[in-house]
Amino acid sequence: MISSGMENYAIINYKNGNRYEGELNNDLREGQGTLFYSDGDRYEGEWKNDKRHGFGKLLLANGSYYEGEWIEDYINGFGKFVYSSGVTYEGDFQDAIYHGVGILTKPGHWIHNGEFKDGLPDGQGIRFYPDGKEIDGEWYEGVIDI
Asked: CB neighbours of 82 closer than 8 A, spacing ≥ 6?
């Protein structure tokens, strides 16, 4: 551990090539900190008991990113995931999967606003298409129930 002179702040270089810069409590990551992954990914945000917990941002080397809530090292709660392809999802997550109410946008294809379960539209939702067409109704595992 390298101390920066600030109490409870450290820079830690791990054997796997990862590096942590941030606050510690009893030698555990706690408070604000940044973890730089050896593959180019980076997490910036809150830590609790050595786990990502609270609000944080995960920036992936491919240009995608997630910004939102974390619980016990998992994406849980409200957040926004922006993929390098331009696809975005903003809404509720459960274990890093779309689950709850959200908006999934596939540019040039459609925007889906509604309920999601296990990563798919499931429940009440409306889908808007670029040509003005709308499909509103009950969805089941990604398919409209007509």
From this structure: 64, 65, 66, 88
Q: What is the CA radius of gyration of the chain?
A: 19
Residue 131 phi/psi, 5° resolution?
-80, 5
The predicted pLDDT at position 51 comes to: 98
Query: 114 and 128 in contact (C-beta within 8 Å)?
Result: no
Whole-number Å distance between alpha carbons of 103 and 95: 17
Which tokens sit at 116? 């999601």
CB atoms within 10 A of CB 26: 8
What is the number of other CB atoms lying within 10 angstroms of the CB of residue 8? 12
Same domain, 40 and 107: no
Residue 89 to residue 79: CA distance in whole angstroms: 8
Residue at a domain's end among 28, 59, 78:
78
One domain, residues 59 and 102: no
pLDDT digit string, tens, across residues 17-31: 999 999 999 999 999
DSSP element (H, E) containing 16? none
Helix (H, G, I), strand (E, B) or coil at 22: strand
Report pTM: 0.91
